[in-house]
Amino acid sequence: MKISDLLLEKYPTTKGEEKTGLSFIAEGRMFFGIGEDDLANFDIQKLPNSQKWAVMYHGIRFEVDEETAENLKNHLSALKK
Length: 81
Hints:
Blueprint: E1 3-12, E2 18-26, E3 29-34, E4 42-46, E5 53-57, E6 60-64, H1 66-80
Antiparallel strand pairs: 1-2, 2-3, 4-5, 5-6
């Protein structure tokens, strides 16, 4: 599965609240619903000899730039609080 983008998205809940979750685009389809329950399933590491970072989620590997990796780490840290 080729991942073309990893996004932080805001979405409304059935209770009228707004939450932020992750989504990604793969092979022209968008996948939603990565939220607080999935925190333990993430691993974020700097790739050796590269400007890119690897984000692993349930065996799916995303390669992202440093800004995206920092945004993701900040988002996941905020969810843990």
